[in-house]
Specification:
alpha+beta, SH3 type barrels, elongated
Length: 86
């Protein structure tokens, strides 16, 4: 299926690609909104690169698209999609 999608994208014109990009961005916002409902202030979370170092901290504040996470006194602004509850 992935190969078929890639082939179809290669056939698209500029307007069609712009429409697809807008749809993808809208879906990303929906997914981040859904992810944000999992987190509450005071919750222990883990975040980091998929194959890299993971950091563990506590949620201090929830913003629209990111949370402020305290990791050993350092404050990180982390997108909800990159966090998971510990």
């Amino acid at each position: 299926m992935k190969i078929e999608i890639h082939n179809e994208i290669l056939k698209m014109n500029k307007d069609e690609i712009s429409s697809i990009v807008a749809t993808i961005n809208m879906r990303r916002k929906q997914l981040h909104g859904e992810a944000s409902s999992q987190f509450k202030v005071g919750l222990a979370v883990q975040f980091g690169r998929p194959n890299g170092r993971k950091r563990t901290g506590t949620v201090e504040k929830l913003n629209i698209t990111k949370a402020v996470v305290n990791v050993d006194g350092q404050k990180w602004r982390v997108p909800f999609g990159m966090m998971e509850a510990v």
